[in-house]
Design goal:
- This protein has a domain of 55 residues.
- It is mainly α.
- The chain is built from five helices and no strands.
Length: 159
């Protein structure tokens, strides 16, 4: 009977979603400390900067001012930036048929940043890697269309 009243008193004190633990096993709250002998000199300097900044100004800090010592490449930029203006629009890759008076086609996507001038793309396109397109020879149709690097078999100079 006594243990049941002890459990109910614990559940009344604890908020919902917190597991009830016997008082014998509950540890007192402790403050997490950082072992300074285990971190590098650069990280020690960062810590000193953070703590001196906190002492100097007690106003709110932005996300960028808060520094964590975890993880690598947190502020690393993109490793590869693709120039989208030199790539052919995906809508035109397969649906390219050039009329005599129309060298640019419009795609379905509004504000498309890819290239729509097929003749300019074919002029600037890198040379083919081979003479025959395996997919075209097997299926009779290449899904890469104009952008196929083995496209000399199925792409004419006009597209």
């Amino acid at each position: 009977m006594n243990s049941e009243s002890n459990i109910t008193s614990l559940t009344e004190v604890k908020p919902e979603g917190v597991a009830v633990i016997k008082k014998d096993f509950v540890l007192k709250d402790h403050v997490r400390t950082l072992a300074l002998e285990c971190i590098s000199e650069r990280d020690k300097r960062k810590l000193e900067d953070v703590f001196t900044d906190k002492a100097d100004k007690k106003q709110k800090t932005s996300k960028f001012e808060k520094r964590k010592l975890k993880g690598q490449n947190k502020s690393r930029g993109p490793t590869f930036i693709e120039e989208k203006q030199t790539k052919l629009c995906s809508y035109l890759i397969d649906n390219a048929e050039i009329d005599d008076n129309e060298t640019t086609k419009s795609c379905i996507i509004d504000k498309c940043i890819f290239m729509h001038d097929i003749l300019l793309y074919l002029k600037n396109k890198p040379s083919d890697l081979g003479n025959t397109c395996y997919v075209y020879s097997v299926r009779g149709h290449c899904p890469r269309g104009l952008s196929c690097r083995y496209g000399s078999q199925h792409i004419t100079s006009e597209g």
